[in-house]
Specification:
alpha+beta; single chain; five-stranded antiparallel beta sheet; 380 residues; four-stranded antiparallel beta sheet; mRNA binding
Length: 380
C-alpha cells in the first residue's frame, strides 16, 4: 500500500511543533523508545525553501502503538490544563499572562524541553474538505493568485538562488517575505500588478540612475523574448480597452506604437521603455537632496512588463554590486491611503469645494461651495 493510503489503516500519526534541528532517525528512535516499533518517519519539507516545516508523519507497525501514543497525549493535555502555571508579565492594568508548557517527561513527546503534539492523521479527502471549509470565503481565488504573484522572485535561505548572497541580503529578504504575507492577509491591502517595489538600493543612486539601469536592462533583452513580451502586452491592452475605467485614447496610442514596432526589436525596446511611467526613490524628507531610504518604486502601464523587469533585476549581481543585490517584488498598496489620496486630488480639482464622499465612477459636473458651519451640521 502506498504512503498516500496509510491513513486508512489508522496506523499513521501527525506530529506538529517538531523541532527544526531534529532528524528523522532521531525522531524515530525517540518515538520507538516510548510507544513501539515504527515503520517510517517523514518530516515535511517546504518545496520552496527545502527546509523543515515543523510537522511530520509517523507510521507504526500496529494500531496498539497509535492508541498508546494518543492516550499518552490525552493525559499530557489533561495535566497541562489542570496544572497551569501562570506568569505575570506586566504590572499595568492590562495584565497579560502566559501558560508554561512544563509537563513531566513521561507524558507526551518531548525533545530538548520542546513538546511535540500528536494527532491521528487524516486521509487526503478529509484534509481537503477541511481546507475547503477554511477557504469558503468568495475572495479566496483572488488571494491565491495574488500569493502566486508575490512569490515571484522569492529567495529564502536554503534555496539554490541564495548561494553567494550576503547574510544582510538574506535577512532583508526574510523580513520582506514576512511583511508581504502579513499584508496579504489584511483586507486593507491589495497587490498592484503595475508597480514594483525595489529594495536594497544603494543610497548614492538617484531616480535618474535607477531609471537608466532599468532602461539598460530592457535594451539588453533577447529578441525572441521581446517579441513574445510585446505580443503579451498587446493582448493585455486590448482587454483593458474594453474596460470603461481605462483611458481609451492612451490605450489606443500605446497599441498603435506597439503594433508598428512588432517587426523591429529596436523600436519595440524603445516603446517598452516608454511604458515605464515613473521611477521613484523614497527619501527621508520630501527634499530631493535628503538621504535615500534604500528602496523605491517603478510604475508601468503593463503587468507583463512589470513581471519582465522583476525577473531581470531581482537578485542580479550586475545591477548594483554582488554584495548588494536588488530585491524586487510586486508592490502592495494600502487602500485607505489611496482613497485619501484620490479624495485630496479631487478636492484640488474642485478648487477647494467640499466633497463629503468620493463615489467611484460618479462624475461630478457641478459642486456647490459649502461653508464651515454647514459642513459641521452635515457631519452630525
Amino acid at each position: 500500500m502506498s504512503k498516500m493510503d496509510d491513513t486508512i489503516e489508522g496506523k499513521t500519526v501527525f506530529l506538529r511543533n517538531v523541532p527544526f534541528e531534529i532528524s528523522e532517525n532521531d525522531l524515530k528512535r525517540l518515538i520507538e523508545a516510548k510507544f513501539g516499533e515504527v515503520e517510517y518517519v517523514k518530516i515535511v519539507v517546504s518545496r520552496i525553501t527545502k527546509l523543515p516545516k515543523g510537522v511530520a508523519f509517523v507510521k507504526f507497525q500496529n494500531k496498539d502503538s497509535v492508541e498508546k501514543m494518543l492516550s499518552n497525549e490525552k493525559k499530557a493535555n489533561e495535566y497541562f490544563e489542570n496544572n497551569v502555571i501562570r506568569t505575570k508579565l506586566d504590572v499595568r492594568k492590562d495584565v497579560k499572562y502566559t501558560k508554561t508548557l512544563l509537563i513531566p517527561p513521561d507524558l507526551g513527546i518531548q525533545f530538548n524541553g520542546r513538546r511535540i503534539y500528536a494527532h491521528l492523521a487524516l486521509s487526503k479527502s478529509e484534509a481537503e474538505s477541511i481546507e475547503r471549509k477554511k477557504h469558503s470565503i468568495g475572495s479566496d481565488h483572488k488571494l491565491e493568485s495574488e500569493f502566486e504573484l508575490i512569490r515571484q522572485g522569492l529567495i529564502l535561505p536554503g534555496m539554490k538562488e541564495a548561494e553567494g548572497m550576503s547574510e544582510h541580503d538574506l535577512k532583508l529578504r526574510e523580513n520582506s517575505w514576512k511583511e508581504l504575507k502579513f499584508k496579504m492577509k489584511n483586507p486593507n491591502y491589495e497587490l498592484n500588478k503595475l508597480s514594483l517595489c525595489i529594495r536594497n538600493i544603494p543610497t548614492n543612486i538617484n531616480q535618474g540612475q535607477l531609471g537608466n539601469i532599468i532602461f539598460d536592462k530592457i535594451s539588453n533583452l533577447e529578441t525572441d523574448f521581446v517579441k513574445k513580451l510585446v505580443a503579451d502586452i498587446i493582448s493585455e491592452l486590448e482587454e483593458k480597452s474594453l474596460s470603461e475605467k481605462y483611458s481609451y485614447t492612451e490605450n489606443n496610442r500605446i497599441l498603435c506604437r506597439l503594433r508598428k514596432s512588432v517587426n523591429s526589436p529596436k523600436k519595440s525596446k524603445s516603446v517598452l521603455k516608454g511604458l515605464v511611467k515613473k521611477v521613484r526613490i523614497i527619501r527621508k524628507n520630501s527634499n530631493k537632496t535628503s538621504k535615500s531610504m534604500g528602496y523605491g518604486f517603478v510604475y508601468t502601464n503593463s503587468f507583463f512588463l512589470s513581471k519582465a523587469i522583476l525577473n531581470t533585476l531581482n537578485n542580479n549581481p550586475s545591477v548594483f554590486t554582488p554584495e548588494k543585490r536588488p530585491i524586487v517584488e510586486f508592490a502592495i498598496d494600502d487602500k485607505r491611503a489611496l482613497y485619501l489620496q484620490r479624495k485630496n486630488e479631487f478636492k484640488k480639482k474642485m478648487n477647494g469645494n467640499f466633497c463629503k464622499y468620493l463615489d467611484k465612477g460618479e462624475k461630478v459636473t457641478k459642486m456647490e461651495k459649502i461653508g464651515r458651519g454647514k459642513r459641521q451640521r452635515m457631519k452630525k
